[in-house]
Amino acid sequence: MRLGRISLTAFTWLVAILFVFPLIWMVLTAFKQEADAYTDPPRLFFTPTLDQFAGVFERGFLPYLANSGFVTVVSTLAVLVLGIPAAYALSLAPVKGTKNALGFFLSTKMLPIVAAIIPLYVISQNVQLLDNVWALIILYTAMNLPLAVWMMRSFFLEVPKEMIEAARVDGATLPTLLSRIVLPVVAPGIAATALICVIFSWTEFFYAINLTAARAGTVPVFLSGFITSEGLYWAQLSAAALLASLPVMIVGWIAQNHLVRGLSMGAVK
Amino acid sequence: MTTTAAAPPSASETAQRPQGRKGGSPWKRRAPLLPALLFVIAVTQIPFLVTVFYSFQSWNLVRPGSQHFVGFQNYIDVFADSQFRGAMLNTVVLTVVCVFVSMLLGLGLALLLDRKFTGRGVVRTLIITPFLILPAAGALLWKTTMFDPVYGLLNFVFGGETDWLSEFPLASVMTQVIWQWTPFMTLLILAGLQAQSKEVLEAAQVDGAGRGRTFLYITLPQLSRYLQLAALLGAIYIVNSFDAIYLMTQGGPGTASTNLPFYIYQRAFEGFDVGQSSAMGVIVVVLTLIVATFALRLMFRTFDVSGGVK
């Protein structure tokens, strides 16, 4: 019995390590010299170096990183500013049409984004927002808002009704009600929602690749530059991939207990 | 469908009545919702309406002044286009296979994680990580270090000189997508496993049901809502797959791994054919709406009972 448990645990570990092996390999490759990165057979032991990370920055990584950071932070803040009152309206003070509004938000997640890319391109061009971070900020806000509203709504529904009723009877206005009663209770939920928006904005590729270029490009756009570069730069690519993913990895590890709830739009705790 | 949204209003509308009588019109109470609603409508619906408009135009971006009304000609051309049908088939295959396989793998991993053991937190963190690296990074990583015919790890492990991306393009892309999405399925199914009632499981054991029977007759039925939700959400995201195809195969060789998002992208940004790519976009939306109508119904049912909404 005991032996069975130990071997099952060992098996679980083995499966997990096999599953993430491509990632482990990416981390190892990031610390190799290019010559060690592609050898036949693959090289497991080598002298680690930070050259590739330096190379990534020499290649002009910083502006892309700054764009990603700016787009992610501003769009996430915009989602919260627009989404918190909406989630409140849909959970704690619902009116006629609540269900329709929720359904509408959900339906926008089901629309294939390709169907809108052509007009978005033409519109961006006409209003001079092509290759401009603000185009991405607007789109990412709209992309994350429905998800955030659904997710925050599920947190808001956990606020004790008695607290809100008592405050209403005392004549609290909406801003007071939100800031004094509701927000302190749902703060962890809002933080989790924000982290999920951060993950989605940081990793978004389709809009970024089609609507930006060198000036407003984000980190995924920088990475895609590696497929057009001549020759093999596996070690540098691995270093870039690691650097580009690290912020989201850290955010995701912090938010892992809330990931499912966010991705399932609050359907599952 | 009704209980979800109807229950909370009935509870709090009573609370609101005093305020409402004092002159708070329904519109005042809707006010907090409006900015978000209007913003999403503007950013998501207007471009779609413009897409519909463009779909009736013949317009090529590289020929200025070429824009004119052509009625349904674009739609006729799209349906006659065998590449479009191929891309549609690829999209269906990619979505169905990836959702199904990543759910199966996710179920397996979730079952392994659903017990106490040394380092469980670490293992869970490891398993979710493929979901957290940039999809673009994941795609390039698989293209280079895994699938490369000479230096790739796959050929090192399995032997041979297979050029995975040109011999099995769609399967290679799917492998990466499945790898990326299995963590999400694992987490969702794990949440389902941990939500099942312990009493029922214990009762089954007392009654002498074996592990297999307990899983089949107790765990699986209890999990079904979580599995439905996983399939639905996985499908919503995977149907839009673009990163992996763009970065790993460019839809090729030929059109072997072209899906609808990539094909529309190609027609729009490499062929500059606004009219036809718009028509394709509209067709994709109509098809999605048909599927989504069923999906939405399912979603509301799932929300009703899964306890997400109290």
UniProtKB/TrEMBL annotation, chain A:
It comes from the Bacteria. SUPFAM superfamilies: MetI-like. The keyword Transcription does not apply. Gene3D superfamilies: MetI-like. Signal peptide: none annotated. The chain crosses the membrane at residues 12-31, 69-90, 102-122, 134-156, 177-202, 233-255. One of its GO terms (biological process) is transmembrane transport. PROSITE patterns: ABC_TM1. It is a multi-pass membrane protein. This is Sorbitol/mannitol transport system permease protein. It comes from Prauserella marina.
UniProtKB/TrEMBL annotation, chain B:
This is Sorbitol/mannitol transport system permease protein. It is found in: Cell membrane. Pfam families: BPD_transp_1 (PF00528). SUPFAM superfamilies: MetI-like. Residues 1-15 have a biased composition (Low complexity). The keyword Isomerase does not apply. Keywords: Cell membrane, Membrane, Transmembrane, Transmembrane helix, Transport.
